[in-house]
Specification:
2 copies of one chain form a homodimer. By secondary structure, chain A is an alpha/beta fold. Chain A contains 10 helices and 13 strands.
Amino acid sequence: MSASVPAFAIGIDLGGTTIKAALVERGVGIQHEMSHPTEAEEGPPHVIRRIVEMIQPLIERAPNREIAGIGIGAPGTVNWERTAVIYPPNLPGWGIVDLRQELQKALGRSLPVFVENDANLAGLGSAHYGAGRPFDSFIMVTLGTGVGGAIIYRNRIFRGTTGGAGEIGHMSIDYEGPLDRYGIAGSIEAYIGQRFLSRYARYRLLTHRDSLVHQMAGADLRNITPRILYEAARAGDVLAREVLAWAGHKLGCVLASAVNLLDIHKIVVGGGVSAAGEFILEPARRALRRYVIPALRDRVEVVRETLGNEAGMLGAAQLVFQLLEQPREDLEA
Amino acid sequence: MSASVPAFAIGIDLGGTTIKAALVERGVGIQHEMSHPTEAEEGPPHVIRRIVEMIQPLIERAPNREIAGIGIGAPGTVNWERTAVIYPPNLPGWGIVDLRQELQKALGRSLPVFVENDANLAGLGSAHYGAGRPFDSFIMVTLGTGVGGAIIYRNRIFRGTTGGAGEIGHMSIDYEGPLDRYGIAGSIEAYIGQRFLSRYARYRLLTHRDSLVHQMAGADLRNITPRILYEAARAGDVLAREVLAWAGHKLGCVLASAVNLLDIHKIVVGGGVSAAGEFILEPARRALRRYVIPALRDRVEVVRETLGNEAGMLGAAQLVFQLLEQPREDLEA
């Protein structure tokens, strides 16, 4: 079967504000790319039309207009069969929408279509096109508004029993710690999710009037971003370095728990907060070594993802290649 | 191939003080069982002879003296190929010992032999013969001197990248908590490993002179066992109930982190401390619901393993059946 799978596929990132789509060549990368406002409030049929409008010209650009299929990443839960999104959190008013069926209908052909959680696809994209390439298995953690995660095991997504594996963001590192948005005490998101980290920085700044962060963030400290903290840290600001090291330590602690449980020793860190780079990652490595079992202390490795948003599209296309070429139990219902 | 695999196998539990061996009928259970002192200090060749002396009469009892093979459980690390133990912690002075090769040599025949970590085999035994039977996937946690664990995913052992997955005992629930034997802060073992739990009970008893535990444990409070706490709790002792509920809450917290990461919602609890039964498990369930992501709150389920030591032998035999009948990637080097 492998020989007959075309070397091109479409990868789509279905975001709350923007749809991104790319024509991906297997093992090479993105060949063409476009984006459109999602206009999710117009409802699924409208969005499906939008997607079709983007897919058509991308297919035109594939050799012989042949593509293996379409992969779609979306936040939240997808069904086990990877055909539908289920109440996607970023698409208000959507319920369960069978994107496979809708797309096939709109395209008038039975192209393979697979839907998968976007964090998982970012992991798969990293595994095949990004910083995860050297590793057969790794834990992907995405530091953004929330803290997302994915488990890549032997170059495939570890899905768990309902497709929801990888929720590193809600693992607790302090059973009496601060609450995250789900009310879970001490989850890593409650420390280093962007909003929480900014708040922590604001508190620390109250007693550090001389910090560069004050100048850089301006009058409203709610403007503090990881980028500002990083810039201040790079300029030598002690407080910014402390805040990022504090975050890195927490990150290392939760990663150690994941490493101990999974016996997967490689970590790829992506997302906005990872812009703070080594100021977070080096403390994370130190903590990681401290909290993993001794046998793993010399094996753990933390690297930063250099792919940006395109990781999701690359992963979406990769999922198509993978499922068509090596179907396995994770394709089953 | 499946049809030709005999329905009987030998399961061995290679403990530090005792070797246990059983003839197991597939899907039925233990048919015959025996045990012998390990005498590990006499060295591997002696222990191999011991094992052979136990295996021979068990094979005699199999129909037509036909067995599928031999499974061996041992603590600590085994190699990925499942042929050798690697510095087993309970067999002092042993280095890397290729049990497959040694056993085949001693038996004078090339019977299949598989070696696996004992906690993983207890999980596999539970999956096929114990409380784990209703579940395709579950997390096994064994509460004893330490806190062991295993991940059963689709009725097989999830091994991680080096065969060491499932170290729940060293996952941290408080990054500034007490240290376990590896120096990991706030690991669950540092709360509910038997020694730590007993110590916590002793501290609490200092200010609870009227507790039944004082009478039951006698003059030396170091004698406190989970069994004593359970008996006192059952007799209505408030302090014993508080101590066990405290332990259960911690257990639920770490299990929630594992559930969130793995998207595996069923938990089987075994081992000595689980003798404290519902006094631990009910608080664990409450905490678990509190610390898992909302989508999983109604799905999580915690049950107690009713198999005792035989879980390991059953799992060892099951591993033989499984690897011969459905060889898959986890059989590969």
